[in-house]
Fold:
Amino acid sequence: MAQFTYSRLSHLLRLSVNKASVLRTGTEIKHGPAGCLQFIRCQRSMDSKALQERQKQQMAKGLPKQKPITGVKQVIVVASGKGGVGKSTTAVNLALGLMANDPSKSVGLLDADVYGPSIPKLMNLKGNPELSDNNLMIPLTNYGIPCMSMGFLVEDVAPIVWRGLMVMSAIEKLLRQVDWGSLDYLVVDMPPGTGDVQLSISQNIPVAGAVIVSTPQDIALLDARRGAEMFKKVHVPVLGLVQNMSVFQCPNCNHQTHIFGSDGARQLADNLGVRFLGDIPLHLNIREMSDRGTPVVVSSPDSPEAEAYKKVASVVVQRLEEVSSS
Structure:
């Protein structure tokens, strides 16, 4: 039965080949079974491309149109593939570093980690936001940085037990129903992973670029790669990788130890073809100041740790200029 079907198909295709021996691709078709297979493969290839194009068009129709946040010039998202790599601490000190490098710039901070908001603790902020005359939430401000977080809307120890739709609704409110005023940069502390929140933010607002934070450890780098690839798929420029907790220096003897490995994020940046933004050391001062709600960039502005964050902030601005001009 298979041979009969094949021979009938071959005969039909041979008739069409006799009328036109050259396909659209310009490839000459041979007669006989080999020519039949060649025609089938070419036809399948063209059908597959047409299907992919139709799917792409349908998906584009279903995506929400990006709408800028009122008053915000550029949005920078700080992300990581997994938790526990110091992403929130990096986001806070990056925002403060941007303003420290250029005091004329206004910077805001949005905590998009609905389930585990860290910005209230890191920025030493408590209380509920007030409402403006337009019924928009007014961010809480410290160290010159206006901040908004789900942590301002719930009790400190209250668990947020929400399904995905409720989380998306909360993110929409944090994006659209906040009176940010006029900001040059809005730094967004993203939740770990590559889930609904990342997609929602990437598809709803124009994001100037993404900063990926990772430790040099192999297991963290695997997830960091996934995070970078996700942003590429949703057409968000990856500004580069920050290597956090890169080295520990003993305060007594100054001996340096690479607890989580060395240069892993730098190598990953090279492999991905993105910029390496800089190293942040594993330092007691960073942890202590973060726990006290006095980030190291403002509490110890002249320390090597603060300089490391400000250097990263400087490179981020350079990358934003490169992306905008390309």
